[in-house]
Design brief:
Layout lengths: L18 E5 L2 H8 L3 E9 L2 E8 L2 E7 L4 H13 L4 E10 L9 E10 L13 E2 L2 H14 L3 E9 L19 E3 L2 H11 L2 E11 L18 H23 L4
Parallel strand pairs: 1-4, 1-5, 5-10, 6-8, 8-9
Antiparallel strand pairs: 2-3, 3-4, 5-9, 6-7, 6-10
Helix pairs in contact: 2-4, 3-5
Catalytic activity: uridine + phosphate = alpha-D-ribose 1-phosphate + uracil
Organism: Streptomyces justiciae
Pfam families: PNP_UDP_1 (PF01048)
């Protein structure tokens, strides 16, 4: 019955596991779900593809949110409405400082709220911060997986391509990476009392000083080094959920 489904994502109002990995690409949601035991597709409406299954005995949700904060926040809100209480974003990002290589993981401690949606919900002074337990669990899982990883603040920016307006510069601010949805998740989690964090696979360089004159760092997220990082990041995300549940009691 339609009244038993939430309006935007068409997921059930009740019965979903409390732990979720959220990704941008519906195909990536299917790939992460393939790592689960007993994976089943719960729904697929618009960009929102949702699976359930279990990882090492922990029931989990894997869901896609599409590109950009405004659409993604609708998934986060409806997952919370459906009973999800722990959400980890697993995505891709561009490196913002030297020493972070393609295929490396960036574990977000916080995010700059340039997402295009939370500014319409809360004053800009309100922070977008990861749950400390999520940061620690992701770091432990990355170490166990042997995945090169870094911790830091990321920049969530709504515009993917440059436009006519001058780009605000965070040069010297020490940002680790740039992506498009995480701050929307972190703000939603703070407002709803959820546990949230994010781990991002670097798929290119975004800071001017990291782009070489020969153009070898032109954006191409379809390289083998990125695919290898995505494979490790999927395991890290799921294992971090298990750690949060079993060792942190979340």
């Amino acid at each position: 019955m339609t009244q038993d489904l939430l309006p935007i994502t068409r997921i059930p109002r009740t019965g979903l596991p409390a732990h979720a990995v959220v990704v941008g690409d519906p195909a990536r949601a299917a790939a992460v779900a393939a790592l689960l035991d007993g994976a089943e597709e719960v729904s697929y409406h618009r960009e929102y593809r949702v699976f359930s299954g279990s990882w090492k005995g922990l029931p989990v949700v894997v869901a896609s949110h599409g590109v950009g904060g405004p659409g993604a926040i609708l998934l986060f809100q409806e997952l919370a409405d459906a009973g999800v209480r722990v959400l980890l974003r697993f995505g891709t990002a561009g490196a913002m400082k030297p020493g972070i290589a393609d295929g490396d993981l960036v574990i977000a401690e916080a995010a700059v709220r340039d997402d295009g949606v939370t500014q319409q919900l809360l004053p800009p002074e309100y922070p977008a911060v990861s749950s400390p337990e999520a940061v620690f669990a992701l770091q432990r899982a990355a170490r166990a997986a042997g995945a090169p990883h870094h911790r830091g603040v990321v920049w969530t920016r709504a515009a993917f391509q440059p436009g006519l307006l001058p780009l605000f510069s965070y040069d010297g601010a020490g940002l680790a990476a740039i992506e498009m949805e995480l701050s929307a998740l972190l703000v939603t989690a703070s407002l709803r009392g959820l546990v949230a964090g994010g781990v991002l696979v670097v798929d290119g360089a975004n800071a001017d000083e990291l782009v070489d004159d020969e153009g070898t760092s032109v954006y191409d997220p379809h390289r083998d080094v990125v695919a290898a990082g995505v494979e490790k990041g999927a395991v890290v995300s799921l294992e971090a959920l298990r750690l949060l549940a079993e060792e942190y009691g979340l």
